[in-house]
Amino acid sequence: MPRTDGGPLRNAASEQSSSRAQTVTAKVKRRYMSFGLYAIGFAIMIGGLIYGAHLVHMPTHWIVVGAIVLLGIGILSGVKATRQKDSAE
Using N-to-C axis directions, what is the helix angle for 60-82 and 35-55, rounded to 10°? Predict the structure, then answer.
């Protein structure tokens, strides 16, 4: 009787492409993070830096300027890190 499953070479190729598809899917899933989670982490970091600057008696107006600059950087990098690419279709 002839084989209908395509033989061992066809099965190995389909297993390899299936494994590659799972690897690509796993990479894509790990790549994206929620913007809210990113923003909360960045806000905690900014709060810590503000507290540290206060402890070393840095002038308040410079603390505010630094916080505003860091907030802007945080928003820009958060949008960049959490943006999902449009599909080609």
Answer: 160
Tokens of 86: 């449009």
Residue 15's CB: how many other CB atoms inside 10 A? 10
Tokens representing 89 are: 């279709």
Q: How far apart are CA 31 and CA 61, in angstroms?
A: 37
Q: How far apart are CA 81 and CA 75, in angstroms?
A: 10
Q: How confident is the model over 9-42, as pLDDT tens digits? A: 555 555 555 555 555 555 555 556 788 888 999 9
Q: Is 39:72 a contact under the CB 8 Å cutoff? A: no
CA distance 35 to 80: 10
> What dihedral angle (degrees, nearest 10) is formed by the CA atoms of 48, 49, 55, 56?
160
H or E, element range at 75:
helix 60-82
